[in-house]
Amino acid sequence: MKKIFLAALLVSGLTSAFATTGKDDSKSINKVATTSFNSTFNQARNVSWTESTRFSIATFIMNNKIMYAYYDLQGKYIGTIHNLSTTELPESLSASLKKQYAKYWVSELFELTSDQDSAYYVRVEDANGSRVLRSTDGQTWEAYNVSLPQTQM
């Protein structure tokens, strides 16, 4: 359930959903979260922490990718997100995206991984608005959310 909540917030707009407090100091972050992070991501480099009203977020580099690990306010791990390019998608998802959404452009693409599973999310846009798709099986896309262009909201 937390994964669905996190994904819904992410696809609704990264900047507005996670208004940070401006703190970027790991000393003020929940100790349970930092301990969990250090244990799980012991190969992480350039780690920085921010807090939002709902999450503690570790931004870091691992395997030459910028990643984001999310923890709830009690310090429990929720999931990890990393942005992707379309070339990093499984072939079936990439082919499906090219075929079914050829008239759209990709404005956001990421993989959300939790302890239980992982899913791909993509926001495609055209002149009429945007559409968010999700793949939980790595084979097919399903509509996840549809929104109107910013000017009509």
Pick out its properties.
single chain, 153 residues, alpha+beta, Nuclear Transport Factor 2, Chain: A, eight-stranded antiparallel beta sheet, 4 helices, 8 strands, elongated
Topology of this protein?
Elements: H1 2-11, H2 14-17, H3 31-40, E1 45-51, E2 56-62, E3 65-71, E4 77-83, H4 91-100, E5 105-113, E6 118-126, E7 129-135, E8 142-147
Antiparallel strand pairs: 1-2, 2-3, 3-4, 4-5, 5-6, 6-7, 7-8
Descriptive report:
- Helix content is 22%, strand content 39%.
- The protein has 153 residues and is an alpha+beta fold.
- The chain has 2 domains: 2-80, no CATH class; 86-152, Nuclear Transport Factor 2, Chain: A, CATH 3.10.450.
- β5 and β6 (118-126) form a beta hairpin.
- The longest helix has 10 residues, at 2-11.
- The protein is elongated and about 45 Å long.
- The two termini are 27 Å apart.
- The relative contact order is 0.15.
- Residues 11-24 have low confidence and may be disordered.
